[in-house]
Write a structure and sequence with these properties.
The chain has about 60 residues and is of the alpha+beta class. The chain is built from three helices and three strands, in the order H-E-E-H-E-H. The chain has a single domain, classed as Irregular (Factor Xa Inhibitor), CATH 4.10.410.60.
C-alpha cells in the first residue's frame, strides 16, 4: 500500500491544535495594505479556527493528525 500524501497547499495554511481543531490565518493581509484601515489590518492579524463543517475536509488533506 503506498503512503498517503499530505496536501501541499493545506499544510501551509492550516495547523492542528491539541484538542483537534485547525488554526488558520486570514486572507487579504499580504498586499494592498495602504487602502485598508488600521482596525481592519489589526483584525486580520488574529488567528481563527476552521469551522466544524469544513473540518472533515481538512482532516482528509492532512492525514498526519
Amino acid at each position: 500500500m503506498p503512503k498517503q500524501k499530505t496536501h501541499s497547499g493545506a499544510k501551509k495554511r492550516f495547523r492542528p491544535t491539541a484538542n483537534g481543531l485547525y488554526k488558520r490565518g486570514h486572507s487579504a493581509h499580504s498586499h494592498l495594505l495602504t487602502k485598508k484601515s488600521r482596525k481592519r489590518k489589526r483584525d486580520l492579524r488574529s488567528i481563527d479556527y476552521i469551522d466544524e463543517t469544513r473540518s472533515n475536509e481538512v482532516k482528509r488533506l492532512l492525514p498526519y493528525k
